[in-house]
Structure formats: structure tokens, C-alpha cells
Inverse folding.
């Protein structure tokens, strides 16, 4: 689609920015906080209401987050309400939560704003409007492959957040915070953005193009840096697991040294940790998608659906089919 000719919200501007957050049930409360609280802090720091935000829901009732806590909203979603920035925040089940009529309303609201986007699984709903066709975008790493398959016309990236013309998308709570800091920095300058980050003691801001990790390692202060390298290699080869010897070779140590490093830092062998990483990825696919078990087995590096089922049952006490159905072990 052609790039929007509307003025960018990501430039030095002192006029108040009107922001509408459309919140769906099942979103993470951390995503909501990461979207709203940096704007609140920026207003406090500059001493004026530079960001004027509203949280709305489809029917005006408080959506319940994954933690069970409802979020108070300002009212019902009105596609005709004027706003400069429109963002959809979604979580579990968001991809199918909106009706065709609601998707049409989301499209109308997005097209009338200077910028529009999806936060975490909200990207699915923005994509269903067709407004990400021909654009770059991201979503939470758990949904990356399914999203790319569902929207082949979108350039899906593993970045923390993506801005492509008027469209923006983020991959989760921490990337949303990074995105909001970028917005604040672009409009009000680096000093204000640093002050906002300092309010939350947030000292790990990332660039938009930084990849989303499957395992968030934090700073790993005091740990052997080769541990992080080994884990990243495991992440990158979930579907075709590397041998411990191959991982050790790529990290520049012997297999014995790598095993000692894992036992000291994590309390289990590299092989056991890699298996757990693959099984946790498989469990997310079992619970959050309708993919056939054979496909999940292949995506997580198992030679057959039977081998996958046995390993899954040993790890979680329940066969994958039964876990998906919610039945007993």
C-alpha cells in the first residue's frame, strides 16, 4: 500500500498528542502499563499534558487481563472519535476476538489517525484490517510463525518493535516500553526520555531492530558470557537441535566445560536445558494454537509425534492432546 502522507508523530513536536488505546480481554497488564505509564511520566516531567490518552474497550466494560485484574476504561470504542495515535492492545485469543464489523471499525479509526499500530497480539487485529499489507511488522515471538503464515503480504520481522510509515507494532511488554521511549525521545528530546527511563529504573532500553529472544537473560551479571551464547544457539535451532558437542565448539569450549558451566549457573546439563526449552515452546503451541501435534513435534525438533508425546507426557504429566482438551492426565 502507498505510504501515508500524514505528518509523522515521531518528530519534534510540542502540540499535545491524542492517543487512543483499544484494549481487548486477555492482554497482559504489563503491556498496558508499558504503553500508558511512560506517557504519564513524561507529562509529569515536562509539567504539561503533552500526551492525552484514553483507554477504551469494544463495549465499554473493563477488559480482564491475563492476571485476572480488570482495567478501567474511559468508555466504549468509537471509530469516529478524533485521535492522533491509535493502538490496539491484545493478548491471548486476540487474533479471533473481533467480528468483521469490529475489524471494519478498527480500520476506520486507524486510517483517520496519524499513526496506528498493534501492541503484542493487537498486531493480529490491525493486520486483519489489511493495513499491514506491504508493510514491515512484528508481534510477540510466540506467534511469529503463525502470523507470518496468516499474513504473507506483511514483512514479518523478529524486531522488538517496528515502525513503517504510519504503522507501528511491538512484540511484548518490554518492547512496548522501548517503543514509548522512542516516541517520547522523538517528540520531546533525549533528556526527557532518559528522565522517563530513570523514573522506572529502566536501564536496558533496546533499539527497535534488536531481536526478540525466546529466553530473556537479563544482564547475566556474574555469569560466563558463553552461557548466553549457548542458550541463543539452542533458541536458534529449536526445530533442529544441535548436539552438545556442536554447541560447545561454536562457543569455543569443550563439551565438559560447557556442561560444568550449565550445572553451575542453571543447575542442569546443556542437554536437559535444551530439551526443556523445546518442550516449553511445544507447550505454548499446544495451548495457544490449533496446529496438529505432528507439526508441533517437527517445529520443536522431535523425530515423530510419538516421541514428542512421550517426552511431553514425562515433562508435564499429561499428553499434549489431553492438555489441549483440558482433560485429566
Amino acid at each position: 500500500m502507498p505510504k501515508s502522507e500524514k505528518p509523522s508523530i515521531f518528530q519534534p513536536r510540542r502540540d499535545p498528542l491524542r492517543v487512543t488505546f483499544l484494549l481487548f480481554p486477555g492482554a497482559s497488564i504489563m503491556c498496558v502499563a508499558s504503553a500508558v505509564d511512560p506517557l504519564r511520566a513524561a507529562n509529569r516531567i515536562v509539567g504539561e499534558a503533552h500526551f492525552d490518552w484514553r483507554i477504551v474497550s469494544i463495549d465499554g466494560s473493563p477488559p480482564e487481563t491475563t492476571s485476572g485484574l480488570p482495567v478501567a476504561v474511559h468508555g466504549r470504542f468509537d471509530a469516529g472519535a478524533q485521535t492522533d495515535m491509535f493502538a490496539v492492545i491484545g493478548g491471548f485469543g486476540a487474533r479471533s476476538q473481533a467480528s468483521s464489523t469490529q475489524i471494519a471499525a478498527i480500520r476506520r479509526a486507524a486510517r483517520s489517525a496519524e499513526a496506528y499500530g498493534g501492541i503484542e497480539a493487537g498486531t493480529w487485529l490491525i493486520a486483519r484490517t489489511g493495513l499491514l499489507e506491504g508493510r514491515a511488522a512484528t508481534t510477540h515471538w510466540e506467534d511469529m510463525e503463525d502470523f507470518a503464515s496468516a499474513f504473507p503480504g506483511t514483512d514479518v520481522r523478529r524486531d522488538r518493535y517496528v515502525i513503517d510509515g504510519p504503522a507501528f507494532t511491538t512484540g511484548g511488554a518490554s518492547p512496548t516500553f522501548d517503543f514509548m521511549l522512542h516516541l517520547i525521545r522523538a517528540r520531546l528530546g533525549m533528556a526527557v526520555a532518559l528522565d522517563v527511563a530513570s523514573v522506572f529504573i529502566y536501564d536496558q532500553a533496546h533499539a527497535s531492530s534488536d531481536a526478540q529472544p525466546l529466553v530473556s537473560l537479563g544482564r547475566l551479571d556474574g555469569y560466563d558470557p558463553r552461557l548466553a551464547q549457548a542458550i541463543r544457539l539452542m533458541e536458534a535451532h529449536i526445530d533442529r537441535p544441535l548436539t552438545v558437542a556442536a554447541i560447545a565448539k561454536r562457543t569455543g569450549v569443550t563439551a565438559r566445560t560447557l556442561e560444568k558451566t550449565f550445572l553451575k549457573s542453571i543447575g542442569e546439563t546443556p542437554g536437559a536445558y535444551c530439551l526443556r526449552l523445546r518442550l516449553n515452546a511445544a507447550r505454548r503451541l499446544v495451548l495457544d494454537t490449533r496446529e496438529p501435534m505432528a507439526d508441533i513435534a517437527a517445529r520443536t525438533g522431535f523425530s515423530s509425534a510419538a516421541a514428542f508425546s512421550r517426552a511431553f507426557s514425562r515433562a508435564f504429566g499429561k499428553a499434549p492432546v489431553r492438555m489441549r482438551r483440558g482433560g485429566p492426565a
